[in-house]
Write a structure and sequence with these properties.
It is a single chain. Helix 1 runs antiparallel to helix 2. The longest helix has about 110 residues. It contains two helices and no strands. The radius of gyration is 47 Å and the shape is rod-shaped. With about 170 residues, it is mostly helical.
Length: about 170
């Protein structure tokens, strides 16, 4: 009888050890699954964050490319405007030089055809008009310099503004 009791005790101990080992293994599998799920969630969140960063960078790059294209187009427009301004300035210089030639002989023509007071008046008017023409030419040249600087500043400001990232 005692040997049967030991046999049953040995069988019960073996069953207990097998059951405890099985429970240990099952619980380990459950925790392993939870750990894998948490790692998967973390990886998915990192992937979503990375994808958003890539989209943001693509948007920023597109903004930079658009800003650069706008800058280049503005530069071409400014160059064309500068050429027009230079052409206008040359025409003004030509007209001013022609006026100087006209003014140079005007006092003699008036003096020969009119009284001495009229000649003095014409001479004074000619000197005033010649001074106005000279100042107008200098003012036009100064205006062209200011316009060139303003065009460059406007192009730089547009590039900076267009290159600034826009959050959508």
């Amino acid at each position: 009888m005692i040997s049967a009791l030991y046999t049953h005790l040995a069988a019960a101990s073996a069953a207990l050890a097998i059951g405890a080992g099985g429970a240990w293994w099952v619980q380990g599998q459950r925790y392993g699954l939870q750990i894998e799920q948490l790692q998967h969630q973390q990886t998915s969140a990192a992937l979503v964050s990375t994808q958003q960063a890539v989209k943001d960078m693509a948007g920023f790059q597109k903004g930079m490319n658009d800003a650069l294209a706008n800058f280049q187009a503005a530069g071409q427009r400014n160059a064309a405007a500068q050429q027009d301004l230079d052409r206008s300035l040359r025409e003004l210089r030509t007209a001013t030089a022609g006026m100087r030639g006209d003014f140079a002989g005007l006092p003699e023509r008036i003096a020969g055809a009119a009284q001495p007071a009229l000649a003095q008046y014409a001479s004074t008017c000619t000197a005033v008009l010649q001074e106005l023409a000279d100042r107008g030419g200098r003012m036009a040249e100064r205006g062209a310099d200011i316009a060139r600087a303003a065009d460059g500043h406007a192009a730089d400001a547009a590039l900076i503004q267009d290159a600034w990232p826009i959050r959508q």
